[in-house]
Riboflavin biosynthesis protein RibD
Amino acid sequence: MNPSSTAEQAVLDAHYMARALELARKGLYTTHPNPRVGCVIVRDGQVVGEGWHERTGEPHAEPNALRAAGDKARGATVYVTLEPCSHHGRTPPCADALVSAGVARVVAGMQDPNPEVAGRGMQRLAQAGIEVQSGVLEAQARALNPGFLKRMEHGLPFVRVKLAMSLDGRTAMASGESQWITGPAARAAVQRLRAEASVVLTGADTVLADGARLTVRAAELGLDEATTALAMSRPPLRVLIDGRLRVPLNAPFFKAGPALVITCVTPENQFPRGPECLVVPGVDGQVDLRSALVALAARGVNEVLVEAGPSLAGAFAQQGLVDEYVIFVAGKFLGSAARPLLDWPLEKLADAPQLKITEMRAVGDDWRVTAIPLPVASV
């Protein structure tokens, strides 16, 4: 292949991979604990099949695309956002399906970090004489599945902390009054964040003070009817951090549906009936948050959305457990007596944690700021 044709092929590969990523996003609300994956099959310059992984336990993206392509898959190029699986899970290996279909080339966005795959899918294809390539639009492919990647690579879920504040950095009045700081568009965005997450996590203080339920409300999602139905078909698990088991069983949080309580005390006497309890290490009634996250990852949890008050949100921040902050900023002041965004006492400016703002956009009358913590510089 000459240099010009190589460059042209790279452009085509990026074009079709972008479409595969677009398809993968259709599974944004429904694939947990599996990754979101899209697939495009191209033959003679024409798309002959498309598919995406729609929900856990159902066929993966590749079989769905192969079914759409039929006999036209033979000799075609397959673009898939994640390396085809090579092991038997709830569904047969996708690599075997591609070999059986007689495809000529497979282009993957990235290698699958799952130890059961981790290059074996592409190796299986290459051994069958199929041309393989990986790493096309890899950054975008990784961004699509931050929780799955972190769970596979580090044994922890991706932690996103959602916060809402006034322009002067306050979250509630001194009395605790906080509804509503932001407007309806921002609240709809929060509902979508909940629907995307594997887990929505809060603390006892928030549940006791606000009567919080932390459910996904279909009417507030702001999505079309079909996407709303998908989002509501897999509600996130609601998790309560309650080290001392202070929240009573008649709280609105428990009446709203299934929930998991993570505590550090023995629940038999205090919690004889009600939601499932998970006991993890703790000190003085304070749950060890890293242990809680490890336990959630072991259950297949990819993404955790933390919606909590300044104490619990501050604890996640101080312990370096936050991967991303999503902060909604309202155009109002709450005054110096109002409650702070995070309970995180800092003595010196040099101690201030650094964040990189990755996105800032208007949401109705409010602003949404997305930021990631920067690594602490070594001395």
The chain has 13 helices and 18 strands.
